[in-house]
Amino acid sequence: MTHSYGLKKGTRSKFAKPFRGHGNISIRKTLQTFRRGDFVDILVDGAQHKGVPFQYYHGRTARVFNVNPRGIGVSLQRRVRGRYVEKRFHVRADHLRPSKCRQEFVKRVQENDKKKTEAKKNKQVISTKRQPVQPRGAAVVIPKETTFQHPKAFVEII
Questions:
Q1: d(CA 33, CA 152)
Q2: What does the alpha-carbon distance between residue 44 and residue 21 come to, in Å, rounded to a whole number?
Q3: For residue range 122-132, what is the model confidence (pLDDT) as tens digits?
Q4: Does residue 104 lie within any of the structural domains?
Q5: Which of 49, 68, 99, 140 is deepest in the core (most CB within 10 A)?
Q6: What CA–CA distance (Å, rounded) separates 67 from 72?
Q7: 95 near 50, Cβ under 8 Å?
Q8: CB-CB contact of 44 with 53 (8 Å)
Q9: CA pair distance 95, 11, nearest whole angstrom
Q10: Are 72 and 66 in contact (CB under 8 A)?
């Protein structure tokens, strides 16, 4: 049998449904609402053959720029020869799910707002910038006699 060079070559396991996940598409996936500006994860559903994006985009996060009755327009940055090019294409809603990439950011913004209002009440100035984990402080280690090791002298074997 000759080698296949088709559009969906090498996607047997990539587009396969998970264990005990085979069968019809759930209506919940079809009835999802997407709005312009939303972040979505592109995950191809193998049961729906229409509106499938190219395999490169499987597992990527994109932003919605257009909403149609049967297709959602998404855009993302793709690396092409050392530069990033904006790619825009339409995907069926069955192959998309709302992304959780901004949940942590939104949560942090809300917490910072609360901290700022508390600081204003107490007439303090605080910094809400994230700080990297600092190195541990210096400490003197005193070994116990039970854990002390007695190294043997090195003897070269010829």
A1: 71
A2: 13
A3: 999 999 999 99
A4: no
A5: 99
A6: 5
A7: no
A8: yes
A9: 15
A10: yes
